[in-house]
Amino acid sequence: TIYFIDGQFTSKDSLNISIDDRGYYFGDGVYEVVKVYDGELYTAEEHFERLFQSASKIKMSIPYSEQQLIDIAKELVKTNDIKTGHIYIQVTRGVSPRVHQFPEMEVPPVVTGYAIPNPRPYKNLEDGVSAKTVDDVRWLRCDIKSLNLLANVLAKQEAYEDGCAEAIMVRDGVVMEGSSSNMFGIKNGVVYTHPATNLILNGITRRVVLKLCKEMSIPVEEKTFTSEEAMKMDEFFMTSTTAEVTPVVKIDGKAIGSGSPGPITKKLQEAFTRQIPVTVIG
Ligand code: PMP
Question: What are the structural domains of the chain?
Fold first, then answer.
């Protein structure tokens, strides 16, 4: 595998990561995951635009242009011969002795990236998954795709220990999003999802799905709903770069709707697959 670090493409053995990297100490950085279908980056512009927005929100500059990062991502896909998979890219505030405030002397941000194969989650797409509601103890800037993922990690672990594929983050009784996904409920033909505020990450897949709903004249309400209301939805699904449109068929051990992927969810899945720019096998 060939990695990218600080302007170089290199092997894992020669990667030089400093203990003084602020990403390592503080999670002081941002990241993106971009899906690769048939050797092509999917919605790369949207992902890299969000990377720059996240960086700006934490007062960090990225020493590359959006196009340069896209070119680096493309090179990673090519040199690693990735067909279906994803690229990971992160930017930290650089290397400096451990003090909380920004480094006194300006240091260059550390940009790292790699590409790995990752098949589409066919089984989950077909059968749906179970989810568990978890108290959302995160901070109030969940719109930033930051490396600080401790609350998400703990939530996902809690879900996994209960045999669930995803945690549903609930704040003051209201469904926010998943630990690494966005959540949608469907009631009487209307698709509900949390509005894109500071309390959720505005997922790129979320945006694609909202666009597909519009194109297919499926009514959407970007409105909050409670975890109690979630249990009474006719259908439920989650979205992310890697999960695509994954049906959620059980929440906290109880079946949602019929207990199997619902008709509108399936329609959206099919529409999603149709707009992947290529025919994807494996
Ligand atoms: N919310 C959170 C907290 C996430 O980590 C992710 C995954 N990046 C998402 C939502 C989904 O975003 P996207 O569709 O851009 O992958």
Answer: 2-117 (3.30.470.10), 122-275 (3.20.10.10)
**pLDDT tens digit sequence for 45-65:** 999 999 999 999 999 999 999
Please state, in angstroms and rounded to a whole number, the distance separating the CA atoms of residues 29 and 149.
11
| Ligand 1 pocket residue status of 85, Cβ below 6 Å | no
- CA torsion sign, 20 to 22 to 23 to 26? positive
Rounded Cα distance between 39 and 122, Å, is 18
Average pLDDT of the segment spanning 210-230: 98
188 phi, psi to nearest 5 deg: 50, 40
Look up residue 176 and give its amino acid: M
- Residues 32, 48: contact at Cβ < 8 Å? yes
**Whether the CB of 206 sits within 6 Å of ligand 1:** yes
Q: ipTM value of the model?
A: 0.99
For the segment 121-134, what is each residue's pLDDT rounded down to a tens digit? 999 999 999 999 99
